[in-house]
Amino acid sequence: MPTLPSEGLTDMGKHFFLRFYSFVFLFYLLVPLAVMAAAAFNDSAFPSPMPWKGFTLQWFSKLYNDEYIWQYTGNTFVVAVFVVLVSVPLGTAGAILVNSLTGRSKALLYGVMIAPVLTPGAVIGISTLLFWYKFNVPAGLHLSVLGQSSFIAAYVMLMVLARLQSFDGALEEAALDLGATHAQMLRRILLPHLYPAIAAGAVLAFFQSIENFNTTQFTRGASNTLTVYIGSKVRSGIKPDINALATIMISLTIIGAIIYEVMRRREAARQAALNLE
């Protein structure tokens, strides 16, 4: 059926609007990062690209020689790794449990498990500190792991729950009818189907932990993490070496995203080739 002129104009308008919106969104998202990165190469003690006083790498050199930043960066990554180790099993188990229930019990359990996501980070941090204080557990990075995991596990649960919607329950029943134990069914049928969501949940948990401030601020004790350290620097004034650190982290993120996209496209091409055969 031929397309009417008005329909063609409508499609062109939608296409133009989507392209314009995408441009504005990316501009709004990337320009602050570009300004921040430019300040890391400006020969000025004020963390801004304007006025430009010349190109320099001195801020990267100062960053390299700042032992406190590297210590706090190490603490941040250690906390993030342990948050992943705690959050991913909890979130995956919670998703499987919620998915297996029906009726009001499912809605109640889902609401209880999703509640930490809606709770302010400061409240979670204070609650974690007060709860473990009753058991004479001092504040420290271990409490930061527990406090962060209490709500980051909910993000993992949501991602695994979304993946479970595409799982065919008949496969589970067939495996059990053929003599497989529940552990074998979980290991050989269910978990392989959930691996993409689990991997994505682990990455999300890792970065959620790295950028967390409020919960960590109340549970870290005498220890420090990178986000808390940078937050404390805001009061006294951020120096360009912080911009240098942010530039390195953003660069690593972009490189990781490019590697992931290349691998994804290669896998898609391989699957397409197998399907043609």
SSE diagram, text form:
Layout lengths: L4 H35 L18 H8 L1 H34 L2 H16 L2 H13 L7 H24 L4 H9 L4 H29 L3 H6 L6 H11 L3 H37 L1
Helix pairs in contact: 1-11, 2-11, 3-4, 3-6, 3-8, 4-6, 5-6, 6-8, 7-8
Protein architecture, described:
The chain has 277 residues and is mainly α. The chain folds into two domains: 68-238, Orthogonal Bundle (MetI-like fold), CATH 1.10.3720; 240-277. It contains eleven helices and no strands. The protein has helices at 5-39, 58-65, 67-100, 103-118, 121-133, 141-164, 169-177, 182-210, 214-219, 226-236, 240-276. Helix 5 packs across helix 6. It is globular, with a radius of gyration of 24 Å.
Features:
single chain; 277 residues; mainly alpha; MetI-like fold; 2 domains; 11 helices; 80% helix
Outline type: globular
CATH class of the largest domain: Mainly Alpha
**CATH fold assignment of the largest domain:** MetI-like fold
- The overall pLDDT average reads 82
Give, in order, the helices and strands. HHHHHHHHHHH
Tell me which oligomeric state these chains represent.
single chain
Number of helices: 11
Low-pLDDT residue intervals, each spanning 5 or more residues: none
The total strand number stands at 0
Cα-based radius of gyration, to the nearest Å? 24 Å
What percent of the residues sit in helical stretches (DSSP H or I)?
A: over 70%
Characterize the largest beta sheet: strand count, sense, and whether it forms a barrel.
none
N→C terminal distance: 35 Å
Assign the CATH superfamily of the largest domain.
MetI-like
Structural class comes to mainly alpha
The count of domains is: 2
User: Which strand-content bin applies to the residues?
Assistant: under 5%
